[in-house]
Amino acid sequence: MPEKRPGLVLHLAGVSQPLHIALAQEEADALRDVLADLMANGETKALATADGGSFAVNFAHVATAHVETTRSHAHAYGAPARGTGFRNG
Prior knowledge:
With about 90 residues, the chain is α+β, with helices and mostly antiparallel strands. The protein has one domain (about 5-70). It is built from one helix and five strands. The protein has one helix at about 25-40; strands spanning about 5-10, 20, 45-50, 55-60, 60-70. The strands form two sheets. The chain has a three-stranded antiparallel β-sheet, with helices on one face. Strands 3-4 form a two-stranded antiparallel sheet. A hairpin with a 6-residue loop joins strand 1 (about 5-10) and strand 2. The termini are far apart.
């Protein structure tokens, strides 16, 4: 059975497709407790991604958001297997 991984799903105002961000487990756990406040206040927050990077979200532009557990990060930003899209060399 595939390992389940945490991710943030953002539905941005005026954008038809949601944005998926692969989160570090600790970040997902902490975000669950403050997500409603970030949305209500329209705050900007840097989040730790699963690949060890960071991703800044301006919640003032987010229509809805939720943390979910998925079986794959195949299409998520910040997933270790996905990479940055840039190649060295």
